[in-house]
Amino acid sequence: MSRVLRTAVAAAAAVLLSVGLGAAPPAPRRRTSSYSTALSRLNALTVAAESHASTYNRDLFPHWITVSGTCNTREQVLKRDGTGVVVDSSCAATSGSWYSPYDGATWYAAADIDVDHMVPLAEAWASGAWAWTTAKRQTYANDLGGPELWAVTDNVNQSKGDKDPAEWQPPRSAFRCTYARAWIQVKYYYALTVDSAEKSALNSMLATC
Fold first, then answer.
1. Which end of the chain is more exposed for a tag (fewer CB within 10 A), N or C?
2. Half-sphere exposure of 79 toward its Cβ, with a 13 Å CA cutoff?
3. Residue 32: which pLDDT band, with cuts at 50, 70 and 90?
4. What are the backbone dihedrals phi and psi of residue 32, each rounded to the nearest 5 degrees, phi first?
5. Is 125 helix (H, G, I), strand (E, B) or coil?
6. Which residues in 133-161 are b (16+ Cβ under 10 Å) and which e?
7. Chain-wide mean pLDDT for the chain?
8. How many CA atoms, within 13 angstroms, populate the side-chain half-sphere of residue 187?
9. What's the distance, CA 19 to chain centroid?
10. Is residue 92 within 8 Å of 110, Cβ to Cβ?
11. Cα dihedral sign for 174, 157, 58, 97?
C-alpha cells in the first residue's frame, strides 16, 4: 500500500471513529509535571549558551538497547504507545495502530512511526551531556520511565530533527502545552541547561496551558 493511500485510509478511519463514537485522541501514556511545577522547574534551570556542538556524534548515546527478551527500546515504545499491537518472535510490530500527538495522525504500520527523543540527543549533548559518562548517555537515550520517548509520525519527527522549541514546535497546537511540560521535565531531571531563546519559547508554550 502506498504512503498516500495509507494516509487516506488513516484519515478516513480517524474521521469515522470521531463521528461514530465521539472518541477523543488517547492521552499520552506517560506522566508529565503540572503547569505550576513545570514553570517552577523552568525557572530553576541554568540559562547558558549551548556548547560542544561540533563534537556531537549520535554513537556517543548508545540507543535502542535490548531491554526485555528480544525487544529493544524502540520496540518497547511501539508496544507501549500503540493500540492492539501484535509483535513477531523478534519483537517487531506486525500490526496495531499508533496515534501521534505531535500532529494528531493515526497510523497502522510501524514503518510510519519514529520514536522521538523529546529533547533530541544533539540538543542534550550541547546542553551538558557532553560531560556525561557513556553509561549515563545510554540511560538517557533509552529512558522509558519519563517523558523522553514518544511514538510519532515519522516525517514530523524528521522535520523536528535536533531543533529546540525556539526553532520547532508540534504542528498540533493543542499539544504544545504538554510538549513544553515534557521538555522541561526531561531537562530538569537530567540537569541540562537551556539557552535564552529556548526558555522564552517554553514560557510562551506554557502560556497555552
1. N
2. 16
3. confident
4. -115, 160
5. helix
6. eeeebbbbbbbeebbbbbbbbbebbeebe
7. 89
8. 34
9. 28
10. yes
11. positive
Closest CA to 111 of 65, 145, 139, 78: 78
Contact between 163 and 98 (Cβ < 8 Å): no
Dump pLDDT digits (tens) for 6-26.
444 444 443 333 322 233 344
C-alpha cell at 45: 534551570
- Residue 178's pLDDT band (cuts 50, 70, 90): very high
Answer for the pair 117, 152: CB distance below 8 angstroms, yes or no: no
Q: Which helix (H) or strand (E) holds 17?
A: helix 3-21
Give start and end residues of each alpha helix (H) in 163-208: 176-189, 196-206
Lookup: cell for 37? 511545577
3-state SS of 38-82 is HHHHHHHCCECCCCCHHHCCHHHCCCCCEEECCEEHHHHHHHHHE
**In 3-state terms, what secondary structure has residue 192?**
coil
Q: Which three cell numbers stand for residue 16?
A: 469515522
- pTM of the prediction? 0.86
